Input
Amino acid sequence: MPETPSDHSHLTNRKRAEGLGSAKRGTEHYWGMIQSSVGLLILVPLFIFTFGPILGESYEEVVLYYSRPFPAIVAALTIVVSWLHFKNGAQTAIEDYLRGTTRKVLIMAVNAVAYVAIAAGLFALVALVL
Output
C-alpha cells in the first residue's frame, strides 16, 4: 500500500531525501563502480605490461609464461574486474533509459553475457596453465 504524505509529516524534506536513493542501493552501486574503476586503473597497465612480452610467442612459451603465478593472477583479475565493471555500467544505462519487460530482459542478458564471459575467460586461462 503506498504511503500518503501525512505518513511522514513529521520528517523534514532533508530527512525524507536522505538515504541510498529510490532503490536503496544507489550509493552502494556508485562505490562499486568507483572501486572497479580504480582496480582497472591498476590492472590494465599491469595486464599490458605482463601480456606484452609474450605477445606473438609460440604456444609453448605462452603456456610456460602463464604457468607463473603473477601473469596468471593479473590476467584473471583483469578478466573478472573488467567484465563486472561492464555489467554494472551497462545495467545502470539500461535502468536509466528503459522500462518494463525490455528492461528486465536486457538486464538479465547483460548479466548472463558478463558471467559467461568471466567463466570462459577463466576457463581458458586455467586450460592454458594446466
